[in-house]
Amino acid sequence: MQSYIIAALAAFATSVSAADGVKGAAQGFAKGVTGGGNAAPVYPSTTAELKNYLADSSPRVIVLTKTFDFTGTEGTATESGCAPWGTGSACQVAINKDNWCGNYQPKAPKVNKITYDKAGVLGMTVGSNKSLIGQGSKGVIKGKGVRIVSNAKNIIIQNVRFTDINPEYVWGGDAITVDGADLVWIDHVTTDLIARQHIVLGNKASNRVTISNCDINGATGWSATCDGHHYWGIYLTGSNDLVTLQKNYIHHTSGRSPKVGGNTLLHAVNNYFYANSQHAFEADSGAKILAEGNVFQNVKQAQQAGLPGKMFNGASSPASCKQYLGHACARNTYGSSGALTGTDSSIMNGFGGKNVAAAGTAESAKGVQASAGYGKI
Ligand SMILES: *[C@@H]1O[C@H](CO)[C@@H](O)[C@H](O)[C@H]1NC(C)=O
Predict the structure, then answer these.
(1) Least buried of 87, 161, 272, 334, by fewest C-beta within 10 Å?
(2) Distance between CA 214 and CA 352 in Å, rounded?
(3) Could you tell me the distance, in angstroms and rounded to a whole number, from the CA of residue 213 to the centre of ligand 1?
(4) Average pLDDT over residues 71-77
């Protein structure tokens, strides 16, 4: 009898719900990802417990039922830095990480005292076979991101918000880092008020990744372009990466939305790019980008001009897509925006035999504004 009561109390305290599991399935390159699979859900109650569940070697379904606030958990640091983008109050300031100011910005005005939260600088390590999910709209991680590295495999992050990671200071931390991994699905995640990258796939091979239904919110009081739009959006430069970027709402950014390079094949499909004061796609050397079915509204340049990466605007030859994707490419549409200019169809070979996300029309992509981000599934 007593054990029933204890179980009931425990269930009440952590809001256990039979519905606490991953919803839906990844499309595109990370199709087949299972994360923690059928493992019994665990409900961390402290920041330390959350860190342990993410890092240990057991398959886990980790359910967030509240805000995990890491600010203050590792103390603060006060150091000098620099202001390469201007000294106005709307400009981000850089921490002098690894003497970055001295090495790369020797002419930038120095800033004597920057106080930042140390927990933000490095995210929590995530092991293989994990699902990290929020319950309803309760799953919030404040002041720290996550790192999927060291060949971690089979990971799902769904319905979680990452927020308030030293947004005033460049080098104050990223929200989601993937750098040496495989089969990663980032779905219905919201990122806002981040110091550096909202999502970064670093130079190591991250293999198969799907980023879908996310709300990448760059609105900020501190930006490198000093205009309320965050510059450091999505960064994809892995050495052997297949990335599906599907149905995301990417807005109030000013650059790197996304930046693509290394050896990355990117399928950008049905995203809604809104209110970008500089550029969305930055196709650097090694980029192979197919963009179809996206909407650009108030985006100054949909594609940054003059870069060497390869881009195929699917709309330039829709029927030719079918043999590689199984569907004709959907057109991209623009409102008060610059257009995609790439017409390099040589990248289409890369899609042969891969799992490819379906494409809705560009008109349907506008709807992602309402459905993207955490708290919507
Ligand atoms: C993850 O799960 C797979 C499949 O069950 C297993 O082979 C692998 O060893 C697991 N990885 C870790 C680090 O536990």
Answers:
(1) 87
(2) 26
(3) 27
(4) 98
Best residue for ligand 1 mutational test, from 125, 128, 155 (most atoms within 8 Å of Cβ): 128
Q: What is the CA(42)–ligand 1 centre distance, in A? A: 18
Whether residue 256 lies in the annotated active site:
yes
**Nearest CA, atom 4, ligand 1:** 129
Residue 263 is assigned to a structural domain of this protein: yes
Q: Which atom of ligand 1 is nearest to the CA of 129?
A: 1
79-111 pLDDT, tens per residue?
999 999 999 999 999 999 999 999 999 999 999
Query: Which residue range forms the structural domain that includes residue 313?
Result: 32-72+112-371
Residue 290 lies in a domain: yes
For residue 99, being part of any structural domain is answered with: no
**How many domains are there within the chain?**
1
- For residue 127, report the distance from its CA to the centre of ligand 1, in Å: 10
Q: Check residue 40 and report its DSSP letter.
A: P
CB proximity list for 243: less than 8 A, separation 6 or greater: 29, 201, 206, 209, 210, 211, 236, 264, 265, 266, 267
Closest CA to 357 of 282, 263, 265, 273: 265
Q: How far apart are the first and last CA of the chain?
A: 36
CATH of the domain at 301: 2.160.20.10
85: in domain = no
For the whole model, what pTM was predicted?
Answer: 0.96
Secondary structure (DSSP) of 218-261: -B-S-BTTSSSBBS--EEE--SSEEEEEES-EEESB-S-TTEE-
Query: Is the Cβ atom of 78 under 6 angstroms away from ligand 1?
Result: no
